[in-house]
Amino acid sequence: MVSTPPHSDAEDRQALLEHARAVLDQVCDPEIPVLTIRDIGILRDVAMDDDGTIEVVITPTYSGCPAMGMIAIEVELALAKAGIDAHRVSLRHSPPWTTDWISDDAREKLRAYGIAPPKKGSNSKRALFSDEVITCPKCGASDTEKISEFGSTACKALYRCRNCREPFDYFKCI
């Protein structure tokens, strides 16, 4: 008979924390379901308090983002379904979210989904004022025009490609 060595409390805590992180890596953004909250940079931290409570820190994409309530609920549901009952979700506004936090993989997922991803370097004047060429995510043409500063959500602008004539959202630089 082979016996397994006992786990230390520290090992058990680390395993629980890693399990919570793996669970949270599956929580999707409700407005862009091809992206997880980690992909988009909303998930800022997952830590464990001294009492074993998992703390999940999320940052809104902008202060009035209506999806944050739903994201907090989805985080709580995912943890509860995984058997992690001792948890809390904290909203952190500082530092403010920026499109630079969107992963490179997420930018490609956006493009494949039909949304033009934001350019990197959100602190540039060109990025902030949409003074740059936005490439069509459908056909790759750079001959595009802005139709409206606001698209399907406030964080996106509506564009149209002059080449394929298809409308598309552009995820604005913030």
Automatic annotation (TrEMBL):
Protein name as annotated: Phenylacetate-CoA oxygenase
Location of the PaaD zinc beta ribbon domain: 123-172
Domain of life: Bacteria
Gene3D superfamilies: Fe-S cluster assembly (FSCA)
Organism, as annotated: Pseudosulfitobacter pseudonitzschiae
The organism's taxonomic lineage, starting at the top: Bacteria, Pseudomonadati, Pseudomonadota, Alphaproteobacteria, Rhodobacterales
InterPro entries xref list: Fe-S_Maturation_MIP18 (IPR052339), FSCA_dom_sf (IPR034904), MIP18-like (IPR002744), PaaD-like (IPR011883), Zn_ribbon_PaaD (IPR056572)
A matching Pfam family: FeS_assembly_P
Residue ranges constituting the MIP18 family-like domain according to the UniProt record: 20-81
